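Hello, quick one for you while I still have it in my head. A protein chain has come my way and I'm curious about its shape. Can you walk me through what the tokens say about the fold? No rush at all, and the record is pasted right below.
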Amino acid sequence: MYSEWASLSAQITANSCGAQCFSVLNKFPASAGREVVVSVVKQLGTNLGITQNAEPSHLVKDEEVKWCMDVICFGLSLPLQEHETIKDCVNVYCEWLTALHPQPRISVPKPICEDANLYARQIINHFHNLFVPRQGESADTIKRQAVLCHRVLRTLQQTAQISQLMDRQTWDTLLLFLLAINEILLAPPTVKDDVGDQLCERVLSVLFEVWLLACVRSFPSPSMWKTLQESCAMWRHRVALVDQWNRVNLALTARLLEFSYGPAFPQLKNADEDGQLIPIGMSNDCVAQTWYRFLRMIGNPTALCSPHIISKSSHFVQWALTHEKGAETHQHPCLQQLPQIFLNAMKGISSQVDAFLGLSKTSLIGLTGGGGARNAISSSANTTAGSTGPGSGLEGSATAPAPTTPTSTSGPPSASSSINSLPLTSMGAGVELAVARPKCNSILHVFHEWLFEAAHIGGDTWRQNRKKQACEASKRPSSMIMEHRKGSISLSQPNSLNDPQSLPPTLTIDKYESGRAEAIGTLCKIFCAKKTGEEILPVYLARFYMALQQCLKITESRECDETLASILLHSSDLFRLDLDGINVLLPGFIAALEIVLPDKDLKLKTQSMVFNRTELRRSAINILLSIMVLPLHYQTLPIRDLTCETSEKMFTFIQLKSRLMNILMNALQVETDAQNTHMLLGGLLLCVQDAVTFEETELGGGNANLSHNSSGVQHHDANLLSSDNAHALFVRATYLVCHRLISSWKTDLNVSLAALELLSGLARLHIRETDALECKRAVKWICDYICYQCSRPPPAHSKDLHSTIVAAFQCTAAWLMQHPYLLQDKDCLQTVLEVVELGISGTKSQSKGTDIPKFKDEKELKPASMRVRDAAENLLTIILEQVGYFPSECGPESISSLLDELALMKHCNSLVPAAAASSEQAIAKFKYFVTENSTILALLEEPLGNDQDPQPTVTLLIRGPFGRHAWTMQLRHLPRSKSGIKYHAVNPGRPIPMNDVMQRLDSEQKNFPDGVDKVQPCVADYSIPTIEQMREQYGTAGIRELESMLENQSIHEKLAWAEADTSADSLSHAQECVPPAVCHEFHAARLFLSHFGFLGFETRNPQNPAEALGNPPQRPLIVLDTKSTAFAADLDRLDKLSARTHDSVYVFYVKSGQTSAQQIIGNMAEEQSASHDPHFASMLQTLGWPVQIAEHSGWTGFAHNSWSLKGTPEEQLKSTASELNYNGSQRVLYWADVSSEIAFVVPTTWNLRYNSDTSDSGSISSTDQIGSSNVWARGEADSATGLAKSKSRNLSLELDTNRRDVKEPVPPTRRKGNVTKPTLLAQAPAKIFLVWLESYEDYLNFPLEDLLAYTRTGEELHTQQLPRASDCHVIFVHSLLSGLLRVKLQGPPGRMSFATPLVDGMVLSRRVVGNLVRQTALNISRRRRLDNDNYQPPHVRRRLKVQDIVQKYKMDLSEAELLAHLFQRAI
């Protein structure tokens, strides 16, 4: 840089020598000179105003002043015993230097004031004598000398700052003086506590600060800069040099960034005192020039790794020659600080790189601040710190014994700085890089030479180069080489130059590993800062890959050293940046991951390494997540070795798959950190999903190419470990996750949820040879998990615990839905139903198999919480209604019947003008009853039009918590197969009756047998009086009346016989029997209710907890009054409450560089679709099924047209939107399972117009027409909910919070209130965005707030608060050049924000992106519901709506009135 310019080193030497022989007193004996000095200086000192008032100087001529200066010059060189005299000399000169100040002191002689610059130059040169080290002085006198030196330095610095008179010559003199005193103090080897050691930090800081001042006032010449560079090379064995160099560099870098990148660029925060380093008034150009020159000032820092180079100055040679035992120059004890100095230099460079990348952080202050801050960053227990003031730093110790483990000197600093200096950017925890950062090439142009050389220190390439140099040097004879400056001699001994044995043990090359780790970590940071589409020069990539490969070499002991840790910590993004050829490093990184991740206790190379192991593992997991899909993506593509040309070491990608799987499984087995476990679980599902999809698509369902032994996998551990086909992965993953969930994850909410999400994902996989035993075991484990969680003591029962139980019930439902054959297994069915019973009632009927079952009526209901009870109810309903039957004939878009009253009446005979029917007319045909206070029965007694068989027929519409179901029932006495046979015939074939009329024999009626008179009567016989006795006793009137009655009866009977004989019905006139006419009128509703037990009016027991829980004592049947006009609307609102959760995901496409909402929305215009990435369209197709809004009866993404029956009038509205779009106008992407629905909407400009139209016109007028979106109600305690999908404010029922943690829990009840009462404290539903990025960096400028206007569902109307951008979850997907996809997650910082399987930074294959995005969106929504105290599941909201309808329309009928009502016909 300055090769054409002459050095001023000779002038420095001349000035140093000249100062010592300037004075004429040197010609006299020392004692005489001392006496002169004492007397003269004492007199001069009295005029300075220190002890008495200052007076004008008596020195008025130049000769007088020069004579006095001659004396003072000699006085400054006196021995330190003459401290007072020297102090007076210093005081006089410091006073006289004020001649350069704007206001000189009164005691300054007149000649000096008149020609201040001339005299100042002489004074400055004379000061040299003060700084010359005196030999053999005591520590006390050395301290006194240091105090005087500090005074002089302070005066010179102050003068340079405030003087307006200094000319260029004076500036040069001052700078050369500072160089000279640094030379004399710092060039010799460090000796502890000598004056050089004490002044080291101070003289350097003054030199650099004055030099910076000179750059503003009088920019130094190139010769001066060259001299500075040469001088610094002689002081590199001093710790303070690199510390001060870092300090100045960072201060200059901060200013450089300000004007180069503007105020928006992250500011580099230095220590406060360092902010004052840069003089006011330094121009931008001056800052840039000074910054570059200072950066190059100490030469190549890697020279610090060569003690021979550092110690080749004449001072070290002199020490070596005078050493009593004989020694080499590089064996001086002070050189033991070189590893620490090298580390500090690398940390300074690393901090500058961080600043350019925008990673400005306060930890950098440690490199530049005072001793305390620096020690916090770069000291260790074994490092000797010498502190001489606020600016002191680490210094070497010549007298202290060398540490036995030298890495401890350099290890911990690296650990605490290089490893923790860059916060990780994973999982949203790190500092983002600056958007306007320079290109990687630009940073590398400045630093590449030093960083690449430092990264190779101690590596194979470095050793080969050293051997080559040694070989070349050995061909030359040993010689005495004269240095070009100061005539210093260097003994060139080429053999010893590279002979490790000649180095002391504290300076072997492995002791520099901390600095090497810092360098390679910095390189990783630079390359990880590559932007999308940015080009990096191939030569830089090649050197970087070579350095990484050298540093990633694993030793036989398989220990983790600092270099390896630094690489892993700073390479999180390396494999997801489209770096050309990066995959050649894959085997090296996998080997490194095998050391760090699978073992619980990381084997460290030295125990002095101090760093955050959790962060190291997290960074390693990030790397693992970015390479998991590579084997199946590239398959048999070979990976070339960088150094070996033969193909012996060549791997193919697919060969690495089993190693990656083992790393993942073993890491999950030993991981203890919750966040790391969360990431690993996401990666595990990605692997299994990818393998399953790969075998389905690429291999046509076969896995012959990849499986090693898939048969009998579950029986042989060896096969399990070696197999990596989909089935083996499924088995391993299921076993591992279930086992850890039960054993160690059950107490952590987020890990439990992630594990259950993974198990739900595994359940949905379609693996051909799924093992029923594995699935049964998984369900058993999940049930055991629920049992354990429920059985924990009351203090542990928190909201988080109940959230895990609810999630486990949902996971069980997923397994049973996907594997319905499990319910055919008796043990499995019993296990599941026991857990359901536990959830609903709080206890099991049989705690053990041998216990006597406790019946339902005998149990006290104490569920863990209402949420748990609701989840168990839901699972029970799914088991009874849906397992094996979903999707029904209606398709997955509905779990309810698509028939309602209107649809049924259109098929009914009695409704003639079908087209003119209204829902009110249809409802009038039905009878409405409510049972269990939660189920509405609508009964239609008319047979439907297609039924010709006159049987008692009733059509039911059952509206319950879990949906609407339609049934038609007939009362049949014979099976349907025999129902066509007639039970009556015209001629039954009976015999003809005989017309012979028998003669009736008249006989006298006898009251007693004939022989009664012969029986001898007894006393008892006489107790019954005879007629005669009665006549005698009571008279004859009564007897006569009785006799007339008997006579009349006899006459009537004879007449009746006569009439019968002559009638047509007599036997003589008998006709054939004729059957009665067939009955066409039935009271079918009454029959149905009676047969099904609804008319049993037994008295209910209010004390029974089963009846107290949500069901107040009441009749089993409640009649509803349907005459009210609002009844139909309320019924419609109930039908609009889906029995499943529903979510929406909004999909956006962002072209490179787009930052405005209008541009992004414009990408979905029809004319723009051709320019999209083709993979975007294919991803859309994998998200869900395209459905036509007009024919869709599920969730559409819009509240106004969801859950409507096909063909109803509101569906017929047509839009002009293009059919290519899924914006919700005509088509949308839809997916559903048994418990949730999700719509994927791709917004266009239509969405904004639609939203503004509906909100202006108030198309949804009723506050509860549509229910609240899923979740987000924050209500008061006394409010309740019955809505389901529209207004968050309407969803406000709060759980009974007093039921937890009570020793004697009472049966939980829900608070009831006015269901339609709006809640003002509503929380708007969070939005989920899926954003496709062409350029990854665009996620930083994604206009989330502006795009919210395009994502309205109609549910936001009438809410007090719209969704906030800070609540939105965004899944960014960026397509890499390899065809893989990089994921970035962004969301609110809540405890449960991020759900699996997608993890921030994960790299996916296109095969699985749709599936994993959908699962992640569903899991995000589920987690938010779990985290919301006031959320109620859909079936609870439906039940509450039914209860609301009951309260509004119930008829209070007595039992008799109810029965009478049943006999009334409907209209």
Notes: The chain has a mean pLDDT of 76.
